[in-house]
């Protein structure tokens, strides 16, 4: 009789059985060391890694996409996913590019819809999130990986994060933990496990930071409204986030891909649809991602190759230029982008509070596409303080070019 060490999990039982079949022998679990017998011969058993789940075949895409971690990312379309899903579903496509992937939720939705997804962003931390959740079909952080991540180091001198951000963000214990885990991540051999661990750390830091942005520093007690997220240490968050990110790993049986890159260097040759969600030129304020998330961008590569502007109170890194953020360059940038993707179906997310106006965008897209359709819906962004909520009421558009 065959025994599966993973009695409860049908998935793992399947893996076990296929291993059995492929080796053409009968297994029997003998001891802790796990030995395999075949007609009396004892053969060392390959140790299967305890994974929770790979495949969610049969789970409705939206239900699955709803499990994607909320990141309070500026411009995130997470709450619009059901609407985006309904617009995407009737379109005929196999593979999609999401070159402004941000929090990663739309790319993940398309993965849940069974598409092959290429997700990129010109910032490194969104690309890291996408690598962990979209490109990664199989790896989770298992017991040995977690042990490696939490390993204590003998080093006594303060690490980079503790030296740089003391008195600016977090407690000394939090900063020491960030240094320790960041160094331990490099000890993981698998790149997807590394990106999962970085993603868990990124979301831990985001949750622990009042308002989820890194523009404010020092004594932040006035923001403390008793929220659990502000009570937990980064270490406690991290352990929770490992579970959260492990929980969204699944195999959609496609070779998905994520990397850091500018939209104008992405190659659309192998995709038949692009989902475009660039930043908008704001009517007021500014839309700089580095200003808000510089700490996460640095954290995603442990500030390697980044220069800190020591003159800034919160130790920022330099802003990244994007033509979509300026009135004088945005229109030309949209035109160039639509031209670049003229051979793909285009789905553009846009909003009534952006520049240029919708009419201008539709005209620009019509230069490169035969049929342009606009879908609309009212939306309220939760980003910003209470006094700004009124300004955050907008009409959202999905402009589809075929
Ligand atoms: C509105 S957000 C995307 C939000 C995302 N769809 C979501 O739901 O979370 C815009 C993203 O574009 C990225 N970005 C800005 N300019 C870019 C460029 N030239 N190339 C690639 N990414 C860029 C920003 O880093 C940001 O993550």
List keywords for this structure.
402 residues; two-stranded antiparallel sheet; 14 helices; seven-stranded mixed beta sheet; alpha/beta
Explain how this protein is built.
This protein has 402 residues and is of the alpha/beta class. The protein folds into two domains: 10-52 and 139-246, no CATH class; 61-137 and 257-279 and 322-401, Rossmann fold. Helix content is 36%, strand content 14%. It is built from 14 helices and eleven strands. The chain has helices at 10-23, 61-65, 81-88, 105-112, 124-135, 143-150, 160-165, 172-185, 191-208, 228-231, 234-248, 289-299, 327-340, 358-366; strands at residues 35-38, 41-44, 95-98, 116-121, 257-260, 273-276, 281-282, 345-351, 354-355, 372-380, 393-401. A seven-stranded mixed beta sheet has the order 5-4-3-6-8-11-10. Helix 4 links the parallel strand 3 and strand 4 (116-121). Helix 8 packs antiparallel against helix 9 (191-208). The longest helix is centred in the middle third of the chain and has 18 residues, at 191-208. The chain is globular. The structure holds S-adenosylmethionine (SAM). S-adenosylmethionine (SAM) binds at residues 73, 75-77, 99-100, 102-103, 105-106, 121-123, 126, 262-263, 277-279, 289, 322, 324.
